[in-house]
Design a protein that fits this description.
Blueprint: E1 6-19, E2 22-35, E3 39-43, H1 50-57, E4 65-70, E5 73-74, H2 80-90, E6 91-95, H3 106-116, H4 121-134, H5 150-162, E7 168-172, H6 180-196, E8 200-205, E9 216-221, E10 224-230, H7 231-236, H8 241-250, H9 256-260
The chain binds adenosine-5'-diphosphate and magnesium ion.
């Protein structure tokens, strides 16, 4: 039987913002498990709560109620110091606007997470060079962000997100500033690295075309999960979605674990 390997287990997660007298329900009642080594696409319109969900998973904000359990430990029980360590140790980020430091070279930008973890210089430069190589930027290591194209800057930021060997990488609209061709290259790159190293990848987007790159698409609407779509079953389904769903129910994705694990 298929064994669930939860990285995150979210139970009745709710986030309400207060703006003066007004209450904004950013997340209403979220219940979902994110498994180790799987890639997810969080799909929903602007304002549906996608970024809020990432912020909660990253421990940048706390839920108003409910629980987010990471590898058996509820995040809401951690203090600020523990949360900072949690982010350093387990999490990588890719942003729409790349968020590279303009005065540092590509290599220096990639080493930043390793500096925070006090990895010695020689070791961190080696790790960062290897990471730049895997994103195809070996010959741009001395360039500063302004001397790189948008796609190249996003490659540097992908290298920075993965250099620490995090358990999970969050990407919030990572291709929002890129053209279609670069978007597809970037999605191949980021999902390829995550699958190779059995890392969980959670990509936030409002672009429905990107969901084909993920194992599962999670549709978010008005702060709730509307439905979860299994993309592999959809692709494998013989003729039409009905048959695919019937198949999926009969044999719960036996080959899938092996491919990812
Ligand atoms: P998405 O990323 O899907 O576009 P967000 O998670 O950013 O959506 O926002 C969900 C809702 O919560 C929106 O209505 C937004 O205006 C509101 N919101 C998000 N962050 C804050 C905040 N810090 N203070 C008040 N309201 C917020
Ligand atoms: Mg957002």
């Amino acid at each position: 039987m298929l064994k669930l390997n939860p990285l995150f287990d979210l139970r009745n997660v709710r986030k309400v913002y207060r703006m003066g007298d007004e209450k904004i329900v950013a997340l209403d009642d979220i219940n979902i498990v994110f498994e180790k080594g799987k890639t997810y696409c969080l799909l929903g319109k602007s304002g549906s709560g996608k970024s809020t969900l990432l912020n909660l998973l990253a421990g940048l904000e706390k839920p108003t109620s409910g629980s987010i359990v990471f590898r058996g430990k509820p995040l809401e029980k951690l203090n600020e110091t523990q949360l900072a360590l949690y982010r350093q140790r387990y999490i990588g980020f890719v942003f729409q606007s790349y968020n590279l430091l303009p005065t540092l070279t590509a290599l220096e930008n990639v080493t930043l997470p390793l500096i925070f973890r006090r990895i010695p210089k020689r070791s961190r430069n080696g790790q960062a060079r290897a990471m730049l190589k895997s994103v195809g930027l070996t010959n741009r290591s001395k360039h500063k962000p302004a001397e790189l194209s948008g796609g190249q800057q996003q490659r540097v930021s992908i290298a920075r997100a993965f250099v620490n060997n995090p358990s999970v990488v969050f990407a919030d609209e990572p291709t929002g500033n890129l053209d279609t061709k670069t978007t597809m290259e970037m999605m191949d790159l980021i999902t390829g690295i995550a699958r190779e190293h059995e890392q969980t990848l959670i990509i936030v987007t409002h672009n429905t075309e990107l969901s084909q790159f993920a194992d599962q698409t999670i549709h978010i609407r008005d702060g709730n999960i509307e439905r979860v779509e299994d993309n592999e079953n959809k692709r494998e389904g013989a003729n039409g979605a009905g048959q695919a769903i019937a198949q999926a129910e009969e044999e719960p994705e036996p080959e899938k674990k092996e491919e990812i694990a």
